[in-house]
Amino acid sequence: MIAQSASALELDSIAKAAANYTNPDAKLQAMYRAALLNTSHQATIASDGTAYVKTGDIPAEWLRDASAQVRPYLFYAKSDPQVAQLLREMIARMGKYLQIDPYANAFTLDYRVWEQKFELDSLAYPITLAWTYWKETGDASIFTPDLSLGFDKALETMEREQDHAKNSTYTQKEIPNGGKGNPVKYTGMIWTGFRPSDDACTYNYLIPSEMMAVVALGELDEIERDVYHNLLKSHRASALRDEVQTGIQTYGVVFTPNYGYVYAYEVDGLNHANLMDDANIPSLLSAPYIGYTKATSFIYANTRRFLLSKDNPTYYSGKLASGIGSPHTNDGWVWPLAMLMQGFTATTESEKRDVLNQLLNSDPGDHLLHESFDPDDPARYSRVDFGWPNALFSEYVMTNFEGVPPLPVGSTADLDFRGE
């Protein structure tokens, strides 16, 4: 058992980058500095030499959150060995998590399962993080035999959950039907119990997570082929990717009178669809950001118009901000994560700047972004300390306003059967 002690983390290049950032907008300067430093405040080096990144004010590491929290540090990894080492140590820990329990979404410092809410995106995020680190730095040393075992667990679990009713023994008390979930048809997609919000799914083919799985499986195909030189696993990942992609385009697209063809949030393959979005990423809004499609693609453009309208039941507006919220938090409150995804997927500079200004207006005085807030009164918010949106904010400023090239993403997988 790994000791529960850990050493505090100091990253000189990150501290220097934050201190040296200046902007005529004092609010932007303060928020960017705080955002960039936030992940280093959440990260520690465990006694086994791996890096542990807690989500914030909850003493656990989510595979999803932690993978996103270190993304802005990928920009520094090629030039700073200290940052690269942190990322290698963190990816190594992710591989161990996947081996311990691929159905768990969060773990403690000493590798105990914090929550066993099966979320498909929790299998995809570590693959994408490792692939992005490799492409950004050229360093393939992360792909150890131990990480390979973790990726094996992820791939096996995805294959098993293609036919949940027949092959899976996973149950969870928050899921309907005795923990097994509502009925679904076999579609080639991957069954998941929970959304990235940690809320149980209504219908268990969660389209944003399926999209992320398509991207991650394409990346795993490349890793297995070019790094591990295992053509069998490469072909398995590629075949599963194609089956999930076909399932998305066959069952995950719904025709609406006002918006045309749009992606549904959840489906069951039995003609039931949930038309909404949730702020947590992967979301439908985030599809171009995660590498699934282009912001200009036919179905995505229709979907985005729907999501950012009053017809989306989770879209809210107030005096100071507007954006997508989540059933996970108060009705009417918006999430900076979704606002940032609106900015990342915007095709005009004016929309990108408008999102930035709304985010600056959300500062309650601590210069941090929070989980959600009242768009009429940002002093009312959830989660005192939540690392994910702060990391995303620093990436947003870097890539959209400071001229930093965006991080690489997996090959575009969107095969719009209905044309561009």
Provide the descriptors you would attach to this structure in a database record.
420 residues; alpha+beta; Glycosyltransferase; three-stranded antiparallel sheet; 14 helices; 15 strands; disordered N terminus
Spatial order of strands in the largest sheet = 1-2-3
The main β sheet shows up as: 3 strands, antiparallel
Reading off the top of the CATH hierarchy, the class is best stated as Mainly Alpha
What's the count of strands?
Answer: 15
N/C terminus separation: 53 Å
CATH architecture: Alpha/alpha barrel
Low confidence ranges: 1-5
Shape: globular
**Portion of residues within helices:** 40-55%
Mean pLDDT, all residues: 95
Describe, in plain words, how this protein is organized in 3D.
Helices cover 44% and strands 11% of the residues. The chain has 420 residues and is α+β, with helices and mostly antiparallel strands. The chain has a single domain, classed as Glycosyltransferase (Alpha/alpha barrel), CATH 1.50.10. A hairpin with a 2-residue loop joins strand 14 (372-374) and strand 15. Helix 7 packs parallel to helix 10 (231-251) and helix 12 (336-344) packs antiparallel against helix 13. The longest helix is centred in the middle third of the chain and has 21 residues, at 231-251. The chain is globular. Residues 1-5 have low confidence and may be disordered.
